């Protein structure tokens, strides 16, 4: 039986499946089955070199993604000098660019969302929403206006829209890594991570929506308004609901059926990609679904002790995806493209980078009055850190590859390669410049959180003032004019509470609750309630006791919430009637 024989014919997959399953996978992954050994060898080599560089070049001034990109470019240029190198390079260049998106993006976005501080995201929800919806739209419109005004690439309207979506996107994984060890406050870190994650998701949806709408308008299938409404429904609403449903099913499934650690890891990997491809085939946004799943799943959603293995496993997969994307990008930019690069192209990329930074800074500063009202602590210094902490990487490069090697007739080959080159160059400039500026800006603006030395100093200061206050109160006890005073009440009133000590105590409490959950001393529902209470009271700088814990538990019940709503409604109604009478 030949490979071209017809095996299966499903109507809704007819555009993606060829005559046979074998032909489909051959067209999807590689041009020829003989390329498979070369691909496996290149993957192993990239992982080995990447792990070595990551181990020994942590403090190197040039970021690791830039080094990987240069290695990929070097292989592409050397392929013209040797037939052996050309054979290996061709094996990578014939891979469908859609494969990079389908393989690498789900694991990256799920891992970033799974590692997110959900409590802080809930606290900063309105600030993140303000930056990622009106702020992103203003950013996108300003970038589109700038690109169309300069008009160096001579593109049409649809390529300009796609190029703007590529530039406005950020890399949540690299952004989180850039601010992890700077000593920033927890609020600022959560705000930056949440804004970067939502910006990248919305940018992906905008990119694919523009492609879908452009295809629909060319085929004259639907009106523009109807197509936009359909895109909003499928990419946002349906994906959000399906992500919540999938997370609940996974949590129930893994906690009730499978108890082995290997089963948890293998199922989390297979079910994740299964759900992603189901969403893509159904017309929903698989990336948005992955993010919702990662946010609704946490360390207490799985069997005790498995969350550490899952985090290590997902971090390993994300690192492999990081290595592949940046190395293969250097291979996928044709070498003849560099022959046509002039000083004006480099200047144009620099101009785009600084324009993006200025636009983002102006947008955040204009929104700072609203951001400061929606949450305590936001100021102009946070705005500067948010600008220089934004990293561009894998999402931008993946969308640029999808545009450059798309089957749609969006632009000429030269224009596609120009968009790809400028997108990648802006990403490299962002990684190099921001890595240098961000630590310096953090030091100059004084945004370091409480260090261990400062914490000890504050602790001894509070202790010293407490001793002085107690000694003064003890001396006043012998005052005959204060003989009738209630000294037990006075002793309670003069106790000083160190807010940092309270926060540290709740950190220890959360670690203790999670350790008891891993040892199966606490149930899943109990540890979720205790960790949530520790987050809430730690943020308020309040101590937790059985009474406050009971009130917190009751406040989280749905019936209690409905009861409060009705009581407020009845009270307000009676109050209004009393005023009118």
Automatic annotation (TrEMBL):
A GO CC annotation recorded here is: plasma membrane
Protein keywords: Ion transport, Membrane, Sodium, Sodium transport, Transmembrane, Transmembrane helix, Transport
Domain annotation Cation/H+ exchanger transmembrane: ranges: 51-438
Transmembrane feature ranges? 36-54, 60-78, 99-122, 128-148, 160-179, 191-211, 232-253, 273-297, 309-332, 352-371, 383-405, 417-438
Instruction: Tell me which Pfam families the record gives.
Output: Na_H_Exchanger
Sorted alphabetically, which InterPro entries does this protein's record hold? Cation/H_exchanger_CPA1 (IPR018422), Cation/H_exchanger_TM (IPR006153)
Establish whether keyword Ion transport is in the entry: yes
Q: How does it sit in the membrane?
A: Multi-pass membrane protein
Q: Which PANTHER family match?
A: SODIUM/HYDROGEN EXCHANGER, SODIUM_HYDROGEN EXCHANGER 10
Protein's name according to its UniProt entry: Sodium/hydrogen exchanger 10
């Amino acid at each position: 039986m030949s490979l071209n024989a017809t095996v299966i014919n499903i109507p809704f997959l007819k555009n993606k499946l060829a005559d046979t399953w074998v032909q489909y996978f051959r067209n999807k992954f590689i041009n020829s089955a003989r390329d498979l050994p070369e691909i496996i060898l290149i993957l192993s080599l990239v992982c080995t070199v990447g792990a070595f560089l990551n181990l020994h070049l942590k403090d190197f001034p040039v970021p690791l993604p830039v080094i990987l990109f240069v290695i990929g470019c070097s292989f592409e240029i050397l392929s013209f000098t040797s037939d052996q190198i050309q054979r290996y390079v061709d094996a990578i260049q014939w891979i469908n660019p859609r494969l990079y998106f389908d393989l690498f993006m789900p694991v990256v976005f799920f891992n970033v969302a799974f590692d997110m501080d959900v409590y802080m995201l809930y606290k900063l929800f309105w600030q993140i929403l303000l930056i990622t919806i009106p702020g992103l739209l203003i950013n996108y419109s300003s970038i589109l206006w700038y690109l169309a005004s300069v008009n160096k690439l001579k593109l049409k309207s649809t390529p300009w829209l796609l190029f703007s979506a590529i530039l406005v996107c950020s890399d949540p994984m690299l952004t989180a890594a850039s601010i992890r060890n700077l000593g920033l406050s927890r609020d600022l870190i959560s705000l930056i991570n949440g804004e970067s994650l939502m910006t990248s998701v919305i940018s992906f949806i905008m990119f694919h929506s523009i492609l879908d709408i452009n295809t629909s308008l060319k085929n004259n299938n639907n009106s523009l308004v109807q197509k936009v409404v359909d895109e909003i429904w499928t990419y946002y609403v349906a994906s959000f609901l399906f992500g919540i449903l999938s997370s609940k099913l996974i949590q129930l499934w893994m906690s009730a059926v499978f108890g082995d650690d290997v089963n948890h890891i293998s199922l989390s990997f297979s079910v994740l990609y299964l759900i992603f491809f189901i969403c893509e085939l159904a017309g929903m946004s698989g990336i948005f679904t992955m993010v919702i799943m990662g946010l609704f799943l946490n360390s207490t959603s799985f069997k005790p002790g498995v969350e550490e293995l899952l985090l290590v496993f997902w971090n390993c997969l994300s690192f492999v995806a990081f290595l592949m994307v940046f190395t293969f990008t250097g291979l996928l930019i044709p070498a003849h493209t560099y022959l046509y690069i002039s000083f004006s192209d480099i200047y144009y990329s620099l101009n785009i980078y600084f324009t993006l930074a200025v636009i983002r800074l102006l947008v955040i500063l204009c929104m700072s009055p609203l951001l400061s009202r929606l949450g305590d602590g936001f100021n102009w210094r946070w705005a500067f850190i948010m600008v220089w902490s934004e990293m561009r990487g894998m999402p931008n490069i993946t969308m640029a590859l999808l545009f450059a090697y798309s089957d749609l007739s969006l632009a000429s080959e030269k224009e596609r390669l120009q968009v790809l080159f400028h997108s990648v160059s802006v990403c490299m400039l962002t990684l190099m410049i921001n890595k240098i500026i961000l630590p310096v800006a953090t030091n100059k603006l004084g945004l370091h959180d409480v260090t261990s030395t400062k914490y000890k100093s504050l602790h001894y200061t509070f202790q010293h003032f407490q001793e002085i206050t107690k000694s003064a109160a003890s001396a006043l006890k012998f005052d005959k004019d204060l003989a009738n005073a209630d000294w037990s009440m006075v002793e309670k009133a003069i106790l000083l509470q160190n807010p940092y000590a309270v926060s540290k105590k709740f950190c220890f409490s959360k670690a203790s609750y999670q350790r008891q959950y891993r040892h199966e001393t606490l149930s899943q529902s109990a540890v979720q309630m205790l960790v949530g209470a520790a987050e809430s009271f730690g943020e308020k700088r309040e101590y937790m006791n059985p009474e406050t814990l009971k009130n917190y538990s009751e406040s989280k019940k749905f019936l209690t919430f409905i009861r409060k709503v009705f009581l407020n409604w009845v009270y307000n109604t009676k109050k209004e009637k009393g005023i009118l009478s």
